[in-house]
Amino acid sequence: MNLINLDTWNSYSRAFEEAAKAVLAGEIVVYPTDTIYKIGAKATDKDAVSKLRRIREEDSPLPIVVSDLNMMRKYCRTDAVPFVLLQQLFPGPVTGIFPKIYDFPEGITADENVRIRIPEHNFIVSLVRKFDFPVTSARANLPVGRSPKTVEEIPTELKKIAKVVVDGGRCRYGVDSTVIDFTTKPAEIVREGAASKSIADIIKNCPE
Fold first, then answer.
1. Which residues on neighbouring strands pair with residue 121, listed in sequence order?
2. Domain boundaries, the chain
3. Which of 8, 20, 150, 180 is in the most buried spot, having the most CB atoms within 10 Å?
4. 156 pLDDT higher than 80
C-alpha cells in the first residue's frame, strides 16, 4: 500500500500520478469523494472489475464515476431526463440509475442499467477526465463494514490490498449518496442519502 496525503500541492501531484499509474495497470486504489471513501478500478477492464468484486465479496452492481455530463452520455441514455434536472443534480452527492448504452464487464451492471456518479471532488473527477474512461465507485469497506468518511475508518485489510490509498481528510458529507432511479417516470429516490431533503421537490417541480 502507498498511502499519500493530499495536504500539499506536491503530495497532490504525487497522489494523482501514482493513482493514475495504478488504475492504468489494472490495480485497485482507494480515493476520497464528497460523500465517503471509495474503491476505484478501471470500469471497462474485465480483470480489474473481477479483482474488485473478489475483494468486496458481494454481487451488487458497482457504481461508476464519470467526469461530466458529456462523458456520462457515452455510457448511458439520458434523453428521457430534462437536461435542466441533470444540471441541478450533477455534480453532487447523487448516484443516478440510467439505461446503459455500453457493454460493461460483468459486475458493473446487474441488468440493463448502470449507476453513475459525478462527485463534487476535484481529485477523482480530474483523474477520470485524464483517463477519459470511468472508474468504479464502490464503498471502501467490506460487506459488513460501515461507510468510511475518513481513511482511519477503512478496514486495514482493504488498505493492504489497495495499490494506492489517497488520504483527502474527512469527506464533506460523510454519508452515502442519494440514489435516484431515472429509468422510471417520474424519477424515483430509491435510497435516501447525502443530498438535501429538497431533492424530491426539485425532481417533482422540474419542467418536462
1. none
2. 2-205
3. 180
4. yes
164-167 and 64-65 strand pairing? unpaired
Residue 65: partners with Cβ closer than 8 Å, 6 or more residues away: 33, 38, 40, 116, 117, 118, 119, 124, 125, 128, 134, 135, 136, 137
Structure-block grid coordinates of residue 69: 455530463
- Give CATH superfamily name and number for 2-205: DHBP synthase (3.90.870.10)
Instruction: Give CA separation, 164 vs 110, 185, 191, in Å.
Output: 28, 40, 30
Instruction: Tell me: pLDDT of 189 over 90.
Output: yes
Phi, psi of 148 (to 5 degrees): -80, 125
Spatial distance between the Cα atoms of 33 and 152, rounded to a whole number of angstroms = 15
Banded pLDDT at 208 (limits 50, 70, 90): low
Length of the chain: 208
Residue range 57-106, pLDDT digits in tens: 777 899 999 999 999 999 999 998 999 999 999 999 999 999 999 999 99
- Closest alpha carbon to 162 in 5, 54, 2: 2
The separation between CA 126 and the C-alpha centre of its own chain, rounded to angstroms, equals 13
